[in-house]
Amino acid sequence: MNWQLARQFPSLVWVMILGVFFSRGTFFMVWPFMAIMLYQKFALNEWQIGLTMTISAVSAVLVGFYAGALTDRLGRKTMLLSAGVLAILAFSLLAVADEVLLYALCMALCAISREVWEPPAKALISDMLPSVEMRETAFQLRYFSINVGAALFPLAGVWMGFAGQQHTFFAVAAVYLVLLWAVWWAFRRPSSPKGKNASRIPFRQILRVLSQDKLFLLLVLANTLVAFVFAHLDSSLVQYLSREGLDNVVQLVGTLIFTNGMTIVCFQFVMVRLMQKRTLVHRVQVGMVLLTISQLAFALNPIDWYWGWIVATFFLSLGECILFPTMNIQIDRIAPANMRGVYYGAASLYSIGFAIAPYAGGLLLKAYGGPSLFFFTTLCCLAVFALYQQIGLATRTSEATEPLEQKG
Questions:
Q1: Cα–Cα distance between 193 and 80 in angstroms, integer?
Q2: Which PANTHER family match (predicted)?
Q3: Does pLDDT of 13 surpass 80?
Q4: pLDDT in tens, 62-119
């Protein structure tokens, strides 16, 4: 990691990096326990919990795609402030919701606010940093911050009795309020971009360029499968463990989340150094080997062997600290300069994998049990290897490699 480059980041880039530490950290104090909360509060079964979580995530993915286009039209500042206001409203309501329909609506709004936030945040980092090396450093630091928060906050929440408690959503809302102020302050700094990142490219033309960019489409499909596999750590695995009657399941889930985050905290920059001379495709292949090992371990681990779950999560986390930063770097490398918001918004379609995983996982758990589910995710990992063989052969049109002319 080049810390000399990091010291040159403008204050607005640091707000985008440090903001996710606090917002995602408090978020992970409650969201991974959502399946347990829905089961205990409303006595929902596996597929009902999965359907509730999937509907909220799918609605967010659809909004996120259009949010990317709006990011280039309305400007980064407008979209970031709008996402922050929506998050404050959604998490505050979720802290007091006592009916399952209101719970589901608030969950959808929470997920939508995140998808509206992501494209302008990532596009802003790309806009403000002139070199590829600086942008890669920023995306690595941003992902590192997410996982420091994900490691520390849930464990602290378990110790203090906050984790898995509905009222903790007020803490998430409070963090977004502070983050909203930080964004407003940073945009007033001299180094911040002035005016809108306005783009008047017709939406029909945007869709045509994206549909013809075969490399981008293959990346989105591969990343969707990767997201589908990872999502079961926070949803299906939690359901599997909680319904098997394990003692101290909340503590075990908190430990797995801590293992996930701390593995990335300790090994992300080690893996960056090891991978720096490899191509992006080779980095993904190494990450997928680790992910495949983790899914086989989940499938074969005896239900009451706690260390088995921890070791499997460790391998998953090693793969994660390679894969997810690389996914952002891939989009940064291929996006035309005046369509960064569009490409980041469209790339967020991979979140469909996160969206459908709880429902699909709930169905598979109910019908076949946990081992069968994780044998299936192992097959998904093998499918990603096949897709990356095609990515290496994909070609791109000139429209997908050069900035489009704007109308007007």
A1: 14
A2: MULTIDRUG RESISTANCE PROTEIN MDTH, RESISTANCE PROTEIN MDTM, PUTATIVE-RELATED-RELATED
A3: yes
A4: 777 777 777 777 788 888 899 889 989 988 888 888 888 888 888 888 878 888 888 8
Name the residue with higher pLDDT: 264 or 378: 378
Q: How many angstroms separate the CA atoms of 113 and 103, rounded?
A: 15
Predicted pLDDT at 404: 42
Closest CA to 345 of 110, 68, 25, 71: 68
Q: How far apart are CA 388 and CA 111, in angstroms?
A: 29
Query: For residues 145 and 139, what is the distance between their CA atoms, to the nearest angstrom?
Result: 10
Break the chain into its structural domains and give their ranges.
10-400
With 90 as the cut, is the pLDDT of residue 318 above it?
yes
CB environment 164-191: b (16+ within 10 A), e (fewer): bbbebbebbbebbbebbebbeebbeeee
What is the spatial distance between Cα 355 and Cα 52, in angstroms, rounded to a whole number? 10
- Both structure tokens of 138: 């920023």
How many Cβ atoms are within 10 Å of 320's Cβ, its own excluded? 25
CATH value of 10-400 in 2.40.30.170, 1.10.630.10, 1.20.1250.20, 3.40.20.10: 1.20.1250.20
DSSP single-letter state for residue 399 = G
Nearest to residue 225, comparing CAs of 115, 357, 72, 326? 357
